[in-house]
Amino acid sequence: MTGKLLAPTPPMGWNSWNTFAENIREEVIAETADAMKEQGFLEAGYEFVVIDDGWSRKERDAEDRLAADPEKFPHGIRWLADYVHGRGLKLGIYSCCGTRTCADYPGSYEHEFEDARQFAEWGVDYLKYDNCFRPQYHDGRNLYRRMGLALANSGRDIVFSACQWGTDSVHQWIRSTGAQLFRSTGDINDSWNSVKAIALSQMDKQAYSGPGCHNDMDMLVVGMYGNGGNDYISAGGCTDEEYQTHFSLWAMMNSPLMMGCDVRKLSDRAKRILLNRDLIAINQDAACRSPFRVKCGSNREDSYVLVKCLANGDVAVGLFNLGDSPAKIAVDLWDIGLPASAGCGLELYDCVEHRALGTVTEMFSSAVPAHASKVYRCKVVRG
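Request: output the structure for the sequence above.
Response:
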């Protein structure tokens, strides 16, 4: 245990659930790790490979320990951790605060300390901890604190991902558990309506996220195109424009960036979205400052301007058209803290097109198609 702050910025990686649900196997995890390294995802910051629900036997072993399903993971979790570590990545695993997991495998209720030690012995680096089958009258806050304490005393640095679904006002108490990220929403699916609903539900909760404890808006569906692990997740898919807006929202809103697609079979467009270094830099900004919304009187109610102040003095500005028709979205610079009396303007850089757009003063606007977005990194300049 290093005692250092884990996950000072939002964790990045891949999770098996969206594409594979509980139908996961050792070779899929290994091949995904290979693909993440070979295709540049590790270099871009995606470091975790997380095995979700369905990895274990249906019952604990004779010594009451969790054990990997020998058909799905014939070499075991320790071997897989070594394989993933050999690619420069980190391994994540899944459990649940209840008596059973959501897919009906053994949970960690009343086994927190022994399970945490088991994960550490296997070389696990990240635990996604779900919220199913919790005893009816047991306080969830206490259960998440128990696992947080168990992980802190496991003998290994393990990032704690509290998948609490946004219930019980989780944003108000989750930091006390030691969690490095917390699910603030229900499950996402591969549809524009799901992406939009989740983003809107979190607009008023951004202040609860910060270095070392991040508001997790659930996994990315970018690049899935309706190929999910079950009918709920598949949900028809999104367009590339909608995927771009999804990624831009998660980046601006400081959500962990955990891919859920099949990384081995990504389209070129999806890969460009997920490997956008300019947007990743905004998400991974060291200050982790919350974005805030500004409103211009000429903008429609379904047009959102999000502003995020960055550690080096730059400002990220995102224009999001969540409506079903094109919109002109305007930004008044005084609303982001730059009045005309300052004698300054903003030098705009388009983070999706990767090009400089010149300097603006007092205000600027842009035409944004339906379900689309624009994100600018802005430098304050004099004159």
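The chain has two domains: 12-283, 292-382.
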